[in-house]
């Protein structure tokens, strides 16, 4: 995932960008209600039709909604509408706290990722051990039967196994050759070795040198305007561990793909990195809609789907996701999908 820096040894940090609605939480329909409230405030009449919202930015949703409502020069009213949404942040927090819910496993995944420094390309990270030793340890995982190169992600009610049917499992859409597996495993072993202890001399030649661990930075990539994103997360106890200063939000651009670039620039600036520090798959985007997946792919990022919204795992795989999770309840599987 990472690339070598100018010196050829420093691995890139990783930027993980979470979608919010349908991925981390369910806001209980509060966002749609808020559109109706702001429209009445601005135009003095009720809103009769709403643009599709899933996976889109507020800028794009507002523009289409105003067009459907027959508003003259709709683009001229987008910024006032965004201001109207932002002004409702306090009311939204109360409503989300009452009607919304954090999705199962979301808080645990965020907490575990905050302590995930060493990236094990094959196995699962152990959040308890990572927290205990400062986030620098991982342990091996298992692959599903029948296809040793494809880690299996269990579906609801099923166990792992890439050759299964029905809900037995959703396979990660990526493969590692045996040589790659051995090389990356040996590299991680080398990192874990106490000082002065060498790897066995009979390991194959050509293994990559052990390098420093990579730090994980996590934030959000959401269609919500920032003030609303913050109150949703705060209302449901999901703000901890997220660096919201480096995220990208619905007011930043109509095109979700551009939000990936916005977040990369912000992360590089905040952390004093080069402009291209988070290019390519050094950025990971996780979301519940095909539009999340397409935005990641169009920006050259790693795309991880989670089938907790209105789209099935098959839809997310068809969109090109590198990995798909049935939900966030298995923290180790989440880390495997995000960081492998």
From TrEMBL:
Gly residues bias spans? 135-147, 155-167
Positions of the UniProt region annotated as Disordered: 131-168
Locate the transmembrane regions by residue number. Answer: none
Q: What is this protein called?
A: HAD family hydrolase
One Pfam entry name = Hydrolase_like
InterPro entries, per database record: HAD-like_sf (IPR036412), HAD_sf (IPR023214)
